[in-house]
Amino acid sequence: MNLYSNKQKWKIALLIVALLLVGASLLVSNNIVNRVANLERERAEQWAAAIKKKIELVQFTNNTFSEMRDKEREKMATWIEATKEVSQATMNLNGEVNNFPLSIIRQNTEIPVILLDDQHNFSGARNLVFDTLNFAKKYPDADSIQLNHLIDDSLVKLSDEWCKVNTPFTVDIYDGFMMTYVYYDSKELVRLKSERDSLIQTFNDDLISNEGLVKVLLVDSKTDSIIGTNLDESGKALNRSIAELKKQNDPIIIDFNNGEKSELYFGNSPELKKLQYYPYIQFIVIGLFALIGYLVFSTFRKAEQNQVWAGMAKETAHQLGTPLSSLMAWIQMLESQGVDDMTTKEMQKDVDRLERISDRFSKIGSGASLTDMDIAQTVRNVVAYLRPRISAKVDIETHIEDGATAMHNASLIEWVIENICKNAVDAMEAEGTLTISLIQSGDQVHIDIRDTGKGIPQNQLKTIFQPGFSSKQRGWGLGLSLVRRIVKEYHKGRVFVLESQLDEGTTFRISLPAA
User: Fold this and answer.
1) pTM over the 0.85 mark
2) Is the pLDDT of residue 382 over 70?
3) What CATH architecture is 368-513?
4) Alpha helix locations (H) across 92-178?
């Protein structure tokens, strides 16, 4: 009967069920995470579509602005040619002024112009709104001549600012006399520029403060340059963040249907990032719960086993006590009746053996006291006891190192050695060599018991000490379990299979702390 084998099967079955439950839970959690990720991508695509519309509007407005600026420059060129022709006709006393250039000059009612002479002095202005009263208030002590100089200097400075926006025209009015026409954008163009800048600012605000505060990166597909982003890093940190965004999600392509494309990279929202870690947290929590439950139940089971062992040992010692007393009385009666001494002596040996067994069970049930004594003598006592009680076909060899001492209970250690030796004899089928060695190595005393039997399969080496394991058809599987309990629990030592090979034999090692 192999109780331990059945228990192992139940453990494996329960473990498989637990893994299936954890796997199913993780699968459901991952499905939820994937659904949320897909929803976020759909939101990002919708947001990208809205961004595309705004970019198209910005581009259209920007193109319109550029076209209007080019047209205004063409108007200015035409206006300056007309002005030049009128000026040359006026300089020529015999010339006649053509009405067509005059009509062109009169049509310019929107583009502000400042005229500078070849010395870069103010010469005139057109369509310029300039309040001279402000200068009079700002400089109350200046006379009219000084005030005119201040106004002229301000207009020259203003023309310098206009030169940064539009390239001025320099015209040769007549030989040796150059005039510079500096112009600025018309009111309509200024208004359109303001609208364009407002659209660009709105686009940047939408890009930076997108819904959910998702990190985004808009890149030009051709130049790989950054159009816009809400990443506030710079340098290497920015490069790392960009690389991270490119790994998280595939980019959304924004096609403007004019040969221009942009790629929108976006990161995961904080909620999705937290949700991605949820399956792992769930797995850890389930694992901790299972581990704590196992430790608690294992502790309870071990405590229950201790009580069972102690109760069984006490009950065994108690049950043996009454028949032993009766047997001792019968032996004394036989001796008084003159029965053969050989008979009574052999009966006394068996009674002594039963007393020793009762004493061992009593110590297991109530705790055993350890004594610092020569363990070599303990081993020799076991060998002396076993020689006449096992098959004559089994040779017992001993290699005992004298002087080795250890804190131990001689009666229990003898029981341990005796139990292992009897199992070894059974493994050899009462024919072979049994070798018992005692050596001291450092702070440990080792007792090696080797047989030449059939050996132990590798898959059973870790289970032979478990309660219920037995290789015998009618065994209960308690012998080696009791051996390990005595060595580990009472002597703080170890007992294990040092070596085992099929059809060659097995070596058990008992290690005890040296005194």
Assistant:
1) no
2) yes
3) 2-Layer Sandwich (3.30)
4) 99-107, 133-138, 144-163
